[in-house]
Write a structure and sequence with these properties.
Chain A: Belongs to the kindlin family. Chain A: GO terms for molecular function: integrin binding. Chain A: Keywords: Cell adhesion. The complex is a heterodimer of chains A (641) and B (649). Chain A is α+β, with helices and mostly antiparallel strands and 641 residues long. Helix content of chain A is 33%, strand content 24%. Chain A is built from 17 helices and 26 strands. Chain B has a twelve-stranded mixed beta sheet, with helices on both faces. Chain B starts with a helix and ends with a helix. With 649 residues, chain B is an alpha+beta fold. In chain B, strand 1 and strand 2 form a beta hairpin. About 45% of the residues of chain B have low confidence. Chains A and B meet through helix 9, helix 10, strand 18 and helix 15 of A and helix 7 and helix 13 of B.
Chain lengths: 641, 649
């Protein structure tokens, strides 16, 4: 067989190095080509990660057993000998950028699996990569500052089970640098500055929300095939909104990153919520941020978990034991006694606050004319069980009021209790909070409740005193809500509202606060809907198709109303006509729809539908083995076949 | 050791006496005791009683009787706990006396046993703690001592538990009176009611509160505690607790598509496949967060303090009820929150067209449970039609209670299924039941022997009867089982044997009272009353009279059964045996014994009386009787008939 010259560039030798010409025959297999090439380079190094990339055809020649003939390589082919794993700048859900090596030769699906293995995120099938939004003005200083995290030195391990070391996967424990990376991954980042939020891109409409989907990479092709180069920026995001088998014990990173993605979705109004919900999200962010700050690196480690649970059970035990002595103790239950000012707004009267001697016992406040009268009948006794407690506080104005709405058969009685100072306020406020839930001062949560209120007050103090200078303790409440509310409320107005919501979550632990955040997020009506601009067959009007984990939603672009929903479990089949790029779906009852995609590629739509169906096939038992073949069958389109 | 034991037993007895003192004259002389402990208890009791007294005022005589029975059961339950711990000999002296009569010969054993059945009926809460600790620790004397201390404290605690006497109206206009413990959930109360009313135990049964002032009605959720909402009623309230079937209670779980796919056309909703329904439930109730139906509609709202009703576009979200203000979009950020659900409940309203000039009569309100009268703090809403109203009220319940609602439903289904299977079992058991197994412990045996002769008028089986009655009277669950750790079946049996003697006596006393308050403690009530059984309370007791033993057993079985379904593994074993025996007994006895409904006592002693009474009872309604089992035997047929009667009333 005739020998001919094959041109191969060896990337490692630099861009200027001349390509090698190797003499080959058509029946030489790829492995042989590589062998010859390596011999010619005369370089002693590990070439094992390298492979041949065929530039014109934009494809890898990975099957070393195939002959050149079989691969269709002829003399005009220009091949590049290049590593399969290259560094990538990965934008994480929390906004940080992490430099790490990823596989450029396998499908994106598998590349993501590899990345997630390094990052210690389970269920990588829920994530994918997308091209970032182009930043309008790229400042150079910003570029340099974001290259903080680097994992390129960490070898990609093949094993799926990773040993824990010091509470983190062993490969993170190598150096302080990698430990810092793990901390970044597993602990939620501090709230961003309000200006930073305002600067980021926010979708203003459903149409804007469709644009993100033009940027997803194709899961069934490799990075190189999609024009991604070494050191390019890509975003790693949760793509499918069904989060399988979330377990705080194993999913530290996954949970944190998901929380971060949800938080940003809310801050940037990717998902709409009401004002009340925003305040609650704000309160949870504040709480999570505060707990994360105080959380030590170690606290996520196994030993710590055990210790924590041991402490928990000890606590339970003590509470349990306490029960037996409870009754006796109750006779000497702790109480609060102080002079406080009380004000009962009544119709037609403008009486102000009047000072009384107040006694807080069990779940009631009794007040007397003066301290001397305290053994007599109280002027009134207020049972706070079931009441609503709201703060009415202004640290700057030294106003510490507790607003009580006490239910009575005739309605609610409104009563204001005014305290002198922060300390008094936090004690009485905490007592009122507990009493409204039927708990007494004996309850173990009392002290922490007092402390929570104090810290929140101090936050307000910092805000009002020196809004510019932020210390670690203080947070501008504007950084907890979306920019819309920056305009609507001043921090001074916002803080009390967040404080109010905060009271209901202040007792949550870090993990439960994150879980609560995710829960509320997932309960939003618009949660988990990915929007696509489409055009129905025969229609000349653009419409929006929402794809969720269980249904398709047709949305009228003009009004934003849901026109129709189709559920997957009524779906008989769906096809894509790749020539005319049209998706056709058949539902039970002879319902057929067909549409083409206006902005995103129809492969993305196809992948979304197939992906959700794939994800719904997961079950608890087989959660460890990922059926990649099925995924590609469902999402790959014609290329998979 | 002995001294300490003695001291404790004294103390405990003392407490018991105190407890009973309210019900009956304290017969036994107070024993010397440590001063410190008794004092608090006394206080507690008095407090509890004031409550009781208040409610007692409004009660009718028969109610009082029932109440007394409950109380006694309570007391005996407490005794029982104690008794189980100690040796028979020691305890015997103090205990037996209490309420019991001549038969007290049996002494301690008898009384102890009696108490057992009672315990079961008592609130579960109290007994469980003790039993758990006992079995494991029995071996070491030290621990026993510790347990006793615990027991004493437990008793003190128990005394502190708030109890209410609740009169529950039943659809046919009759009523039942129950004592409800503050720890009891609505589910448990309903189990009692099932047992008392012999209705089919389907999932739609519901305990509702009605408020005539506001013309509202709300079904309590199964997981709620009943005492808490009831204790917020005003003193002069006309509010009522009603026991009825409400189809919308769990409709969302039977036909989730009606709520989650409400926008779809009727036909496709009707055609929904079971599999798809399940999936809907799975999607909406089994995820990380539950999904609230995405309701949105124009509803009418009566604004605070105004008389007019305004139309608004409302949306339901997990975080609350919102409307979109005029001129704004439906976008989330523009919505105004009308109310969040943390502190309010949702109530159906009646005839608001008249009362408040509402556009339609399909109204619901949201208010704090403690608000009992018209108030500006109530949110009034009005829908175009009933379907819409059900949609919204259910949606709000889902938003408020979330997964709990689904748990309740599943528990209710299990319960309903359990009852059905139980019925079957009973029948089968009947055949074998003829031999009442006196396998119980030594104590039980003691009690048994004497009684058997007595009780057995006709068939030896009847011995078993006695026990059932007590259970009947008292509501709740059967915690007793735990007490008798060893042989599951034993628990059931033991009670019966001993029960006859002692319990009979007791029971007799109580049952009678219901009819004639004066005859508070006549041992043989039947005799006294026979001729003219006061028919007033027919609703309550009549059933018992008519269909002698079998019915009573059935109910009994029902009683014990209910609990098992929920936690089949633990509780089940014991109950079944019991019921079976009874059932069997019932089968045999039918002819001779028309024992009164109350406890066992009736069967043996007052056959004649029962007969007389029979007439009134049967006439009642004719309705459900699902429980009727399939058995071909005579027994089963009898059973069916009995059940029918039961259910009718």
């Amino acid at each position: 067989m005739a020998a001919w010259d094959l041109t191969v560039t060896v990337e490692d030798l630099g861009p200027d190095a001349p390509p090698f010409k190797i003499s080959v025959t058509s029946d030489l297999h790829i492995g042989g080509v590589i062998l010859k090439l390596v011999e010619q380079t005369n370089q002693m190094k590990d070439w094992s990660d390298h492979a041949l990339w065929w530039e014109q055809k934009q494809q890898w020649l990975l099957r070393t057993g195939w002959t050149l003939d079989k691969c269709g390589v002829h003399a005009d082919a220009r091949l590049v000998f290049t590593p399969q794993h290259k560094p990538l700048r990965l934008g994480l859900p929390n906004g940080a950028t992490l430099k790490m090596r990823a596989c450029f030769s396998s499908t994106v699906f598998r590349t993501v699996v590899g990345i997630c293995r390094v990052l210690n995120i389970r269920h990588p099938e829920e994530l994918s990569l997308l091209r970032p939004v182009e930043e309008k003005k790229k400042k150079k200083d910003k570029d340099s500052s974001e290259e903080l995290y680097d994992l390129t030195d960490v070898p990609l391990t093949a094993g799926s089970v990773q040993a824990l070391y010091n509470g983190m996967p062993a490969h993170f424990a190598d150096s302080p640098k990698t430990e810092a990376v793990y901390k970044m991954l597993s602990v939620s980042l501090p709230s961003p500055a309000p200006e930073a939020i305002a600067k980021l891109y926010r979708p203003a409409s459903v149409v804007d929300k469709t644009h993100i989907h033009t940027r997803w990479l194709d899961s069934s092709r490799s990075l190189m095939q999609q024009g991604i180069l070494e050191n390019d920026r890509l975003w790693l995001r949760f793509k499918y909104y069904t989060f399988h088998d979330m377990d705080p014990k194993y999913d530290v990173v996954r949970l944190t990153q998901l929380y971060e993605q949800a938080r940003w979705a809310i801050l940037l109004e990717d998902i709409d919520c009401t004002e009340e919900e925003m305040m609650l999200f704000g309160a949870l962010q504040y709480h999570i941020g505060k707990l994360s700050l105080s959380q030590d690196m170690v606290s996520s480690c196994q030993g710590m978990d055990d210790l924590e649970s041991a402490l928990k059970s000890l606590e339970v035990k003590m509470v349990g034991d306490g029960n037996s002595t409870d009754i006796l103790d109750n006779m000497t239950a702790p109480e609060l006694n102080d002079y406080l000012k009380i004000f009962r707004p009544k119709r037609l009267t403008l009486k102000g606050y009047k000072q009384y001697w107040c006694n807080f016992q069990d779940t009631s406040i009794s007040y007397y004319k003066s301290k001397e009268d305290r053994y007599g009948e109280p002027m009134q006794q207020l049972n706070l069980k079931g009441c609503e407690v709201a703060p009415d506080v202004s640290v700057a104005g030294q106003k510490f009021c507790i607003k009580l709405l006490i239910p009575a058969p005739e309605g609610m009685n409104e009563i204001y209790v005014r305290c002198e100072n922060e300390k008094q306020y936090s004690q009485w406020m905490a007592a009122c909070k507990l009493a409204s839930k039927g708990l007494t001062l004996l309850d173990s949560s009392y002290q922490s409740e007092v402390k929570n209120i104090q810290t929140f007050l101090s936050m307000q103090r910092c805000n009002s005193a020196a809004p510019a200078a932020q210390t670690d303790d203080s947070i501008n409440t504007h950084s907890l809500v979306s920019p819309r509310y920056h305009k609507k409320y001043k921090p001074k107005q916002l803080t009390p509202r967040i404080l109010e919501a905060f009271q209901n979550v202040a007792q949550l632990s870090l993990t439960s606060a994150i879980l609560r955040f995710l829960q509320i997020w997932q309960a939003l009506p618009d949660f988990g809907i990915s929007y696509f601009m489409i055009r129905f067959k025969g229609s000349r009007k653009d419409e929006v198709m929402g794809i969720a984990n269980n249904r398709l939603i047709r949305i009228d672009l003009g009004v934003g109303d849901v026109v129709k929903t189709w559920r997957y479990n009524n779906m008989r089949q769906w096809n894509v006509n790749w020539d005319i790029r049209q998706v056709a779906i058949e539902f039970d009852g002879n319902i057929n729809i067909a549409f083409s995609c206006v902005t995103a590629d129809c492969k993305v739509v196809h992948e979304y539908i197939g992906g959700y169906i794939f994800l719904s096939t997961r079950s608890r038992q087989q959660s460890d083995t990922l059926n990649e073949e099925l995924f590609h069958k469902l999402t790959g389109g014609h290329e998979a076949l | 050791m002995d001294d300490i034991d003695a001291m404790f037993s004294d103390m405990l007895q003392e407490m018991d006496l105190l407890t009973q003192s309210l019900g009956e004259e304290a017969e036994s002389a107070p024993l010397p005791k440590p001063a410190s402990i008794p004092a608090p208890q006394e206080m507690n009791f008095s407090i509890g009683f004031t409550d009781l007294n208040a409610s007692l005022h409004e009660m009718e005589d028969n109610d009082l009787d029932a109440l007394m029975a409950d109380l006694v059961a309570d007391i005996s339950a407490t005794e029982e706990k104690f008794a189980t711990d100690r040796d028979t000999s020691k305890g015997s002296a103090p205990f037996a006396p209490i309420p019991i009569q001549p038969q007290s010969n049996f002494g301690l054993p008898a009384s102890t046993d009696t108490s057992k059945p009672a315990t079961s009926s008592n609130s579960i809460a109290a007994p469980p703690p003790l039993p758990a600790s006992k079995p494991s620790k029995e071996e070491q004397e030290e621990q026993i001592k510790a347990d006793k201390i615990k027991l004493a404290l437990e008793k003190l605690k128990e005394a502190k538990v708030k109890k209410l006497v609740v009169k529950v109206e039943i659809m046919d206009g009759s009523s039942k009176t129950l004592m409800v413990d503050e720890r009891q959930t609505v589910r448990e109360v309903m189990d009692n009611l099932f047992e008392k009313t012999h209705c089919d135990c389907n999932v739609d049964w519901c305990v509702c509160e009605t408020n005539p002032d506001l013309q509202t009605e709300r079904g309590f959720e199964d997981h709620e505690n009943l005492v808490e909402p009831l204790s917020t009623w005003t003193r002069d309230t006309e509010n009522k607790v009603v026991f009825l079937e409400k189809k919308d209670k769990y409709e969302v779980f039977r036909n989730p598509q009606l709520f989650y796919l409400w926008k779809k056309d009727k036909k496709s909703q009707m055609d929904m496949k079971e599999k798809d329904k399940e999936q809907l439930l799975e999607e909406n109730f089994c995820g990380a967060s539950i999904i609230v139906p995405d309701l949105e509609a124009i509803l009418y709202m009566k604004e605070d303090g105004k008389k007019s009703w305004k139309q608004r576009y409302f949306l339901l979200r997990a975080s609350g009820l919102y409307y979109s203000p005029k001129g704004k979009t439906k976008a989330s950020r523009d919505l105004v929150c009308l109310v969040q659900f943390d502190n309010v409940n949702v109530y159906y309203c009646k005839e608001y067209r008249n009362k408040y000039k509402a556009p339609t009569d399909h109204c619901f309100i949201l208010k704090h449970p403690q608000i009992q009268k018209e108030s500006q703090y109530i949110k009034y809403l009005c829908c175009d039609d009933e379907v819409t109203m059900t949609l919204w009220v259910t949606g709000i319940r889902i938003a408020k209670y979330g997964k709990q609602l689904y748990e309740n439903y599943k528990a209710a289904v299990r319960k309903a299924a359990g009852t059905a299977t139980w019925a079957n079992r009973t029948i089968q058991a009947s055949s074998s039941a003829s031999t009442p197994s006196p396998t119980p412990k030594a104590k039980a045996a003691n009690g048994h022997a004497p009684q058997l002769p007595k009780d057995t008028k006709g068939p030896g089986n009847q011995t078993s009867f006695p026990p059932p009655p007590p259970s009947m009277e008292t509501l709740p669950p059967p915690p007793p089982d735990p007490m008798l750790p060893p042989p599951p079946p034993d628990p059931m049996l033991p009670p019966p044997p001993p029960a006859p003697p002692a319990s009979t006596a007791k029971v007799n006393k109580f049952p009678p009272p219901p009819r004639f308050p004066q005859s508070s403690f006549p041992p043989p009530p039947m005799d006294d009353l026979p001729p003219p059984p006061p028919p007033p309370e027919e609703a309550e007791l009549p059933p018992d009279f008519l269909p002698p033993p079998p019915p009573s057993f059935a109910p009994y079985g029902g009683d014990s059964l209910p609990p098992p379904p929920p936690d089949p593994i633990t509780s089940l074993p014991p109950p079944p045996p019991g019921p079976q025996n009874f059932a069997s007994a019932g089968g045999a006895p039918p002819p001779p014994p028309p024992p009164p409904p109350p406890p066992a006592p009736a069967p043996a002693a007052h056959p004649s009386g029962s007969v007389r009474k029979m007439p009134p009872a049967p006439p009642k309604r004719t309705t459900p009787q699902q429980t009727a089992p399939p058995g071909g035997e005579l027994m089963s047929e009898l059973m069916t008939a009995m059940l029918k009667k039961r259910s009718q009333q």
